[in-house]
Amino acid sequence: MPTTPPLAQQPSPDVGAPASGPPPASPGSRLRAYIALEACAVALGYVVSVLWVGLPAGPSRWALVAGGAVAVAVPLWIKSRRELRQEAEARSAEAIAIEADTKLRLVVGDVTTPIAEVVGKVHQAATEAERGSLRGQLGQLIVEAAANLCDGERARATFFELHGGEMRATAWFGRGDQPETVFTEAPADRRGHEALLLVRFHDFLLVDDVRAETLPRGAEPRPGATYRSFISVAVFCGEQNFGMLSVDAPEPYAFDETDLNVMRAMAQLLGAGLVDRP
User: Fold this and answer.
1) Which of 76, 109, 184, 227 has the least CB density, counted as fewest CB within 10 Å?
2) Separation of alpha carbons 132 and 245, rounded Å
């Protein structure tokens, strides 16, 4: 039995046959044509001058003509090389941007779909034990997504859960060394005070290099720390505070504003899954 082809494959009655003819010239071919026209114009000017005043009379005049030709040819050659190189770089940058955008769309789609499913299951769970297990899965999915989506090489993402006035690492993914930092309200724990304030005020912090001369309050690394740059974002939902999501890397300037936005989005997803039902 014959089948009807999909609408996308059927010819539209309002659209005629594709126009025939040579394909449009590429920017590179147009640039070469312009340079050739410039060279032809210079050559034509020389021919006209020869017809007007005659050929050079001696070796010195021929040397002068040759020097003039070189003086004209060298700038044209340099110009053509520079413009062709700039054009190639622009095309390469555009291709890289398109590839990165496509990859980001695929990665974000693959990452956020399972996270959203777990968030939904958390709020549909019938028992507290099931809800706790799903929240543990959600935290692990979030840190894996954060470590993979941020650009830093050998990045490690960690969720420090807030409980009883202190924050400890309950989920992490990335480099092999386990996060050991505990943020407390102890008088001598300045880093702990600043981290807890960050969570309390639903703030974030991006530090390019922990060895820089000037650092934000509480950004100093602990002795023996293996990271040079990090991002920390508060995890909350409404008025409920759950802790801090961080990503760090062993090299300085590993993260940028795009990574900060990724971390904030991941923190919001985690907060949506950890919030208690009314």
Assistant:
1) 109
2) 18
